[in-house]
Amino acid sequence: MAQIIDGKALSAAVKEEVKAEVLQLEARFGRRPCLVVIIVGENPASQVYVRNKVKAAEFTGIESRQVELPASVSEEELLETIKGLNDDPSVDGILVQLPLPKHIDEEKVIDAIAREKDVDGFHPGNVAGLWIGKDCIVPCTPAGVMRMIDSTGYDLNGKSAVVVGRSNIVGKPVAKLLLDRNATVTIAHSRTRDLAAVTREADVLVAAVGRPQMITGNMVKPGALVIDVGINRTDEGKLVGDVDYDSVFEVAGWITPVPGGVGPMTIAMLMKNTIHCFLSRVE
Ligand code: GUN
Prior knowledge:
- The chain has 283 residues and is of the alpha/beta class.
- It has two domains: 30-114, Rossmann fold (3-Layer(aba) Sandwich), CATH 3.40.50.10860; 140-263, NAD(P)-binding Rossmann-like Domain (Rossmann fold, 3-Layer(aba) Sandwich).
- Helices cover 44% and strands 16% of the residues.
- The protein has helices at residues 7-29, 44-60, 75-87, 106-112, 124-132, 140-151, 171-180, 195-199, 245-251, 262-282, and strands at 3-4, 34-40, 63-69, 93-96, 160-164, 184-188, 204-207, 225-228, 232-233, 239-240, 254-255.
- The strands form three sheets. The chain has a six-stranded parallel beta sheet with strand order 1-11-8-7-5-6, sandwiched between helices. Strands 3-2-4 form a three-stranded parallel beta sheet, with helices on both faces.
- α2 (44-60) crosses α10 (262-282).
- Residues 95-98, 120, 140-141, 169 line the site of guanine (GUN).
């Protein structure tokens, strides 16, 4: 039976840390960090995520502003909005909630955010920084995954880590962070031959594929540390991860639940990243 890594409790602890830091920053610099979240259109999932980000900012004392643009907004208008925020000295962090409507080029939008205000860590300058080991902003979900692993006291040195999923937001950066901690890392994906044979070798297994409950107990090494990044809604409306919780719970050494696992950690790490951006601008 696995021990549960409680993302809700851990994220609350991180947000308390941020709250204390914000007080110190305000005393020292005369203002609080400011995060601007841009939401385009009315995607219900995005609206929930953005609401939670704004709520977390309120809790920590980070100033937050929300910019709501209609789904019909042109790419040019969105780029202009970003440029205005880049040039606004009172803004420390800019986040454009993804996905964007089809007529807008996400890559162009990400490139347009000033690197030092890129709280998501998606800008090519930050991605390069991560891969060459230079100071950079680490994407929130991968940073949250690492914090969850560290909360267990698990020593990654020399361990076998398998990441299932190769997205720019999660799979690739989390693989690099595990590599930085001397794990031997495999990135598996939808074309991996005999995926179960690969995942069964993993001391640490990170599932980030976006396929509901695809990692089952028979794919997991006994005692493994399993991190579930997936958030999927079943036809019955239930929220489930990429991991089949019940069968994996019986085999794994540690497991993260969905909901209440990686999701809240992502938001807590966004608050940390906002402080990082603030500091890089004032110091
Ligand atoms: N949509 C889903 N996850 C994310 C994220 O981490 N950042 C942004 N900006 N949009 C997302």
